[in-house]
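Predict fold of Flagellar biosynthetic protein FliR; 230 aa.
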Amino acid sequence: MVMPFLSSTYIPATVRILLALTLSALVAPMLPPLPQVDAISLHALFLAIEQLLVGFMLALFLTIMLYIMTLLGEMLSMQMGLAMAVMNDPSSGGSHPILGQWFLLYGTLLFLALDGHLVAIGVLVDSFLLWPVGMGIFDLPLMGLIGRISWMFAAAFMLALPSILAMLMVNITFGVLSRSAPSLNVFALGFPMSMLMGLLCVFFSFSGLPSRYSDLCLDALSAMHQFIGG
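Predicted 3D structure, encoded as tokens:
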């Protein structure tokens, strides 16, 4: 329900329900003995809520990982002057810069190409062995999950830093031109040049982005596995 790509509204609810039932049927024989509780008691309700919260927190690691690409696109859009070029996304119910949507799609495809979804499902299965049902959620390293927010901003900034510096040099150059030759229409010339430089930076960034993003995917999956005691 929460894991990126599988939680998209573009995937029908019937497919997601069938996937959940199939995973449950395959995983149930491998699980250790579960606590014997009454199915209609409050204890059973608390156990269900506990497992839902654990699943949501595990999926949050992957959601933060994918939003690195969205944040990268937003940073580049701000430097290029494309912050107002937004597109409504029906899958998330919000509006995002077009460049951010492009990077998000690219990051999702990279995650699937690296079989990250299979590793994430494997971590989900291991969570029942490493963190058995009934262990609670307050003993989990919750501060480590909160720290992934700062990790997201730091990773997006490091990916965008070369392009930001290149476009900053262009802006500084046109600032010097506007002071040395005030008669030049710098605004009419600077905006197209900034956008052209931004597109070139985006083009060249794709040469090294897959290897860098694969390292981030590995880091997120490792943190996801360590979160449950792996």
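Residues 87 and 95 are 5 Å apart (CA to CA).
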